[in-house]
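Researcher: I'd like a structural prediction for the single chain below. Treat it as a standalone chain; there are no partners to consider.
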Amino acid sequence: AHAEDDAGQLSNVRRIGHALPLTVHLRTHANDEAWSLLSHRLLGADVAPLRVGFACLGPKRDNFRLESKRRVYRWVPPRHEPFPGIRDADSLGAFFGVEYADQDVLRRTHAAAVERDVDLLIYPELCFGETAELQVRRDFVASPRRSRPQLLVLGSRHVADDGARRRNSLAALGRTGALQGAASQFAHDKIGTFGFRDGSCYYVEDISRSRRLTALDVEGLQIVMLICKDVLQQTTLDTIAALAPQRLIVVAMSDKTEEFVHHFCEFAARYNTTTFFSCFSAAGETTAGVFGPGKHFTAVLLKNAAASRPAASPTPFPGSIRVDPQTVDRPCLAVIELPVEARGDDALGHSHSWFEISHV
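Model: Treating it as a single chain, here is the predicted structure.
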């Protein structure tokens, strides 16, 4: 009510500080070998380790493209506006069509995951354009049924439905069935809202925010996938508390990852949730991480190289058996083997053999 509409509609601007009510849907996958990997491979009992690959794109600078950015409102900020960046802005705008600049890196990352026998490959938020995503999908589906990776999380990308409804949408594929080319698909649209300040204008992600959260049930194991600011929405946090999912996969594009890490550690401690985090982040911030419960509580972090100084060791979390300051300075595939608890504290303290870095 405090904005004057200059061009078109942008409902997200008026509701940027609002937490939308959510509807939870439970989707069952019976006898799905690929998704059940997330259940059996983390038990640490006479099974091969789970090899989780993260597409680390290097420190986020100017290595992404933006399709459109436009001002749409003259702005008179409300006195109690919760976002400081908006309070000082004199206009509001919209942005859409973000993707990683070097799209061929994304396909090379998938090829590296195949070579490295990765079970689960996770890309970060807003890395794909339409063409590159279709190529990686085809590469995944066309490979033999027993090929790795068995699970592929395609990060997310901006999708326009016939030029009308715009979404920030995540897609995940799992090999299934006896035939080559068969794959199950899981999708999630972004719930949270994001904006950034540029000069005197505050730009908001021009998407229709989802009010739906889907939990995937595989043999009694609940898996939830979220996109970036979804994690910071109070309604999402309340839903996670109610569901207490055993596995959480989060893709993000953020310059500040500390708050995410805080929530993931809390999920592990309170709800026994293991979280896989893949983020296209700024220098010095977390780009990949695994956070899990257990006797010693696990926190595994890979960080981007800092801009002007070596990456500092992250603050240890209470009870953590491993927090690693390994730096990433260019695009690579980072592979972490789980469960790390099975290797013992001494081995972890003196060896990096539990993860691999392959530049792409």
